[in-house]
Amino acid sequence: MSLNTFSNPRLFLGKTELIDFDSVNYNNSGNNTISTLTISLTNPERDMLPLLSQEIVFYLNYGSADTVPFFRGYIKEYTPTDKKITLIVHDVLTFLAGKESPPITITDNSNYDGFTITQMIQDFVENTVNKNKTIIGLDMLTETSPPVSLTGYRGKNITPLKAIKDNIPIDKSSETQVRGYKIVVRDDGEKSNINIIKEQDIDSTGITFSLNDGIRKLNYRRRQSPNYFQMEVNDSEMIYQHHTLPTGITMGKLQGKFDYTDEARQEAFYTSVQEDGKSEISIDVTKGHYLEIGNTINLSLREYPEITGKHRIVAKKINITKTAITCLLTLSKDKITLGDYFNNS
């Protein structure tokens, strides 16, 4: 299947190339979740072959030939009809969150006390996922900065991915921005490697998109951000108000437990800053297909000054048919005026 000189996608089932695919849809919804590939094959006789749990390797080859696969995953389900077969493929995070991942219970007697998140991932992958063969690569796995200890963390019948997400850090060390960490999967040509990386600095030089360069369509909406938090902390009431409420109160909700009201108030502040001024933006683009979740891009839009500036990618979809390829990036804007808020909070 070849669209044009700019894209020549190739698909492999194991070592066998599949040339009879009608469409391929890639979806990474962000939030440290499993990425999926939905494939439509025009040869219905392929359901005679063993398909479940078979490895799928996909090369996007957009602009030039990929040196490593764009996506590698395993068939989790398929639906045959008299005209086609639809395959649902998950990336290797399915072995930390899906039916392939036995739930874990972390108690006072059996736990990861003394382990960091990275050490816990390595222990589980080596002793459970990769017990018979290497499915998840660990060659690119590095510690967060600073490392996060799992000492004291407990959970019942949870997936390893939930344990990771429950403890994944947020970098609040800067007075200009709040940066989260993302679970990423990167291929080395032989296997998919897992890593935890920090979101790109909002001041980083990112690819610039405009309506004349890279953007086919643009959609966005603004919502009222939470600006008022109220909760009880150890029989004391914590109230936090963000700004002077010029548009009225919009209640926010904090996650987790707090020992002190000041701790809860600080979390309310950071939550407000993260949400303040954010727009929900989606752009249909002709470039940027290989950008990752958490990467920074720059929108140059004189027509829409309220969303012009730096944004982070929070989700990505790529749809390929016989005649076209589309790439949809979902963005969220982070305002970098956090230092000003300290004097007003």
Describe this structure in words.
The chain has five helices and 21 strands. It is mostly beta strands and 345 residues long. It has three domains: 10-91; 96-198; 207-341, no CATH class. Strands 1, 2, 3, 4, 5, 6, 7, 14, 15, 18, 19, 20 and 21 form a 13-stranded mixed beta sheet that branches. The termini are far apart. Mean pLDDT is 88; it is low at 334-345.
Would you identify the regions where 5 or more consecutive residues have pLDDT less than 50? 334-345
Order of helices and strands, N to C? EEEEEEEHEHEEHEEEEEEEHEEEEH
Outline type? globular
- Note the gap between the termini: 57 Å
Structural class: mainly beta
Topology:
Layout: E1 10-13, E2 16-18, E3 21-28, E4 36-41, E5 55-59, E6 71-80, E7 85-90, H1 94-97, E8 104-106, H2 117-129, E9 136-137, E10 155-158, H3 160-167, E11 170-171, E12 179-187, E13 192-198, E14 207-209, E15 215-222, E16 228-233, E17 236-241, H4 261-275, E18 279-285, E19 296-299, E20 309-320, E21 325-333, H5 338-341
Parallel strand pairs: 9-13, 14-19
Antiparallel strand pairs: 1-2, 1-5, 3-4, 3-20, 4-7, 5-6, 6-7, 8-10, 11-12, 12-13, 15-18, 16-17, 18-21, 19-20, 20-21
